[in-house]
Structure prediction request, 81 residues.
Amino acid sequence: MKVRVQFFSRLRDLAGVSEMEMDVPDKTTVANLLELVYAHTPVLREWDKSILAAAGVEFVSRNYVLQPNDDISIMPPVQGG
Prediction:
């Protein structure tokens, strides 16, 4: 199934793209997706412990099971000021 991965802030700079479309197996979790992203863009693995993920506009855990055509946002911790 296809999902779209969007990168934000510093992660977008490191990935070199703002988004990518990925074809993943059914029952793929966010954790599985992150491993696929890291295989494609290894420098992002350094941020693994602090990465937040969202499906649509809702933050999701790494156990979230992806749905067809999900838009998954990958971002560093939210910072305020």
